[in-house]
Specification:
The complex is a heterodimer of chains A (293) and B (306). Chain A has 12 helices and no strands. Chain A has 293 residues and is mostly helical. The longest helix of chain A is centred in the middle third of the chain and has 37 residues. The two termini of chain A are 13 Å apart. Chain B has 306 residues and is mainly alpha-helical. Chain B folds into 2 domains: 72 residues, no CATH class; 210 residues, Orthogonal Bundle (MetI-like fold). Chain B has 13 helices and no strands. In chain B, helix 5 runs parallel beside helix 13 and helix 11 runs antiparallel to helix 13. The radius of gyration of chain B is 24 Å and the shape is globular. At the A-B interface, helix 5, helix 6, helix 10 and helix 12 of A face helix 1, helix 6, helix 7, helix 8 and helix 11 of B.
């Protein structure tokens, strides 16, 4: 119960406040590391992700352990694991950002429309959102992904279809309370149309929430992609993804555990970093939470 | 109260109706053909058509759905296409294993999560707090299949403390339950920490301190019970989160529950089983949420049901 001394005066800018949070900085550093790895993959590794190296397997045909010419070892086909991880980071980031962006778009559209127009439209949209929450998200995603011919963009679509619900609910609540405020009534009295009110007066107030949920959502998306790929219904080999590297190599999991745990650690790291940053952003951006804990 | 309950139950029924319609529709329009799976590769076009009409799959969508729905209302979930039994029997046979796994997972996440949350709140602002919160973030960011494989590797393959997979004794439950519970323990740790911090700020805690009560008694006797109460309501919501996780956890550990049943059914396009499991899961989610809402006012009388 020894509360820290008097609270310091919080610095003004978002970045300055974010920079005081150690865990957020850790998260940002990890994200920067992953993005750098993905972007500079061709420079960072001399190999191609698809080359099956002649000397990449033992004489018995088993994968090589980490060390030597292949810093993280090789996979079951004699491909360099580090190279596949670096290129796999591209898949994870592309899916994470695209799927989450799409989910955010759907969620914002549904939440804001329902919250602003209320009435029948709002009712129907929100009942549909309630309906979606009753679906076990992972089961639905697995069902959809298993039944479609899997491809990168199908995975993006499937993930977006199950991940928009939470954003919609949060934004619905915020929009309904915003729409009842005086400044909106005043704007309407001045003769502003729905479009003008929505885009110039409501949406700007929702930006902090959208940023927070967008950041946290990337973490969920990355995990969902990894899970689908691990089950063999996500991103399909030979395109490397962290989930499908584990899927391909899990038969070697007892004799070559690094093939499972190194990509596993990469997935954890990326999901963790977006969670850390998202949580810190919530503290920094959300006016109702500011100053608490 | 009775009116509220009736309204919520009606709402739940409508949601389940919607879930059944959407799932049925998705499975109907999606390109995978169950008849091909049943008939096998070498079947003639005639056999395929025979099977199709036998199963009623040549009927229009709305007729098929209506037939399924009326069957469902009479307690008939249909027959599996590939396994020669009733879906209801298949699910009933698998459900106890899944419920056991979930119960153990709930115990596990409560023990880990609440302990971490209380410790972090009591050591607020110290490196212990930061470390515990980082741990809770790791818990919610860890992919379940990696956690499962890691636990298997360390505790079953290397140390040999637990069996590698399967079902039967209490030792079989431990690793899958921890895997399933780790995600929730992260959330509980964070909720428990803020709940505990809130409670420690209350006047009655200050009063207890002022009258000279030992710190230990204040924390265990006054703060902890009050801080835990709002957390209890969350258990209902967990059930929904577990419903997704069991598919992965059961397939990693070879646990014979409904998660494994549904995963096998999805791979073979066994539509009646997919429908059945989805509906059972949706039921669990809806009831879990209802339970959470019903429990809250009992725990905190300030919250009234409207």
């Amino acid at each position: 119960m020894t509360d820290a001394a008097l609270p310091e005066v919080a610095p003004k800018g978002v970045w300055a406040r974010l920079a005081r949070k150690k865990l957020a900085l850790l998260g940002l550093a990890l994200i920067a590391l992953t993005v750098a790895g993905a972007v500079f993959a061709p420079i960072l590794t001399p190999y191609s992700p698809d080359t099956q190296h002649f000397d990449g397997l033992t004489l018995e045909g088993a994968p090589l352990p980490p060390g030597g010419a292949f810093p993280l070892g090789t996979d079951l086909l004699g491909r360099d694991l580090l190279t596949r991880l670096l290129y796999g980071a591209r898949t994870s980031l592309v899916i994470g950002i695209a799927a989450n962006g799409l989910a955010l778009l759907i969620g914002t559209l549904v939440g804001v429309t329902a919250g602003y127009f209320r009435g029948w439209t709002g009712s129907i949209l929100m009942r549909f959102t309630d309906l979606m929450t009753a679906f076990p998200a992972l089961l639905l995603a697995i069902c959809l992904a298993a039944i479609f011919q899997p491809s990168l963009w199908i995975v993006v679509l499937v993930i977006a279809m199950v991940n928009w619900v939470q954003t919609a609910r949060v934004l619905y609540t915020e929009t309904t309370s915003l729409a009842e405020r005086e400044f909106i009534a005043a704007t309407r009295a001045l003769g502003a149309g729905h479009g003008r009110i929505l885009f110039l007066h409501i949406l700007p107030h929702l930006v902090p929430t959208i940023i927070v949920w967008g950041t946290l959502g990337i973490s969920t998306t990355v995990l969902l992609e990894a899970t689908l790929s691990f089950l063999g219904i996500g991103v399909q080999p030979p395109i490397p993804s962290w989930g499908n590297i584990i899927f391909e190599n899990q038969t070697y999991f007892q004799s070559a555990p690094w093939l499972v745990f190194i990509p596993g650690a990469a997935i954890l790291m990326l999901a963790l970093s977006f969670n850390l940053v998202g949580d810190a952003l919530r503290d920094v951006l959300d006016p109702t939470e500011r100053g608490r804990t | 109260m009775a009116g509220y309950l009736a309204r919520r139950l009606l709402q739940a029924a409508l949601i389940l109706l919607g879930v059944s319609f959407i799932t049925f529709f998705l499975l109907y329009v999606l390109p995978a053909d169950p008849v091909r799976q049943i008939a096998g590769r070498s079947a003639t076009a005639q056999t395929v058509e025979n099977i199709r009409s036998q199963l009623g799959l040549d009927q229009p969508f709305i007729v098929q759905y209506w037939r399924y729905l009326t069957g469902l209302l009479q307690g008939d979930m249909g027959r599996s296409y590939l396994q020669r039994s009733e879906v209801a029997d298949l699910i009933a046979a698998r459900l106890p294993a899944t419920l056991l796994l979930m119960a153990a997972a709930i115990a596990c996440e409560l023990v880990f999560g609440l302990t971490m949350g209380v410790l972090a709140a009591l050591r607020r602002g110290t490196p212990i707090d930061t470390g515990l919160m980082l741990t809770s973030f790791v818990a919610v960011s860890a992919p379940q299949f990696v956690v499962g494989l890691l636990l298997l590797y360390v505790f079953a393959v290397q140390l040999g403390w637990f069996p590698i997979g399967g079902y039967g004794t209490m030792a079989h439950v431990v690793l899958p339950a921890v895997t399933l519970g780790i995600l929730g323990s992260g959330w509980y740790a964070r909720m428990m920490r803020s709940s505990m911090i809130d409670v420690l700020r209350q006047d009655y805690i200050r009063t207890a301190r002022a009258k000279g009560l030992a710190r230990r008694r204040i924390i265990l006797g006054h703060a902890l019970p009050n801080a835990i109460l709002p957390i209890v309501a969350m258990i209902g919501i967990d059930i929904g989160i577990f419903m997704g996780g069991i598919v992965v956890v059961e397939s990693v550990f070879g646990w014979p529950g409904i998660g494994q049943l549904s995963w096998q059914a999805i791979q073979r396009v066994d539509i009646p089983i997919i429908m059945g499991v989805t509906l059972v899961s949706a039921c669990a989610i809806v009831l879990g949420n209802l339970l959470a809402d019903l429990v809250t006012p009992f725990i905190d009388p300030r919250i009234r049901i409207r």
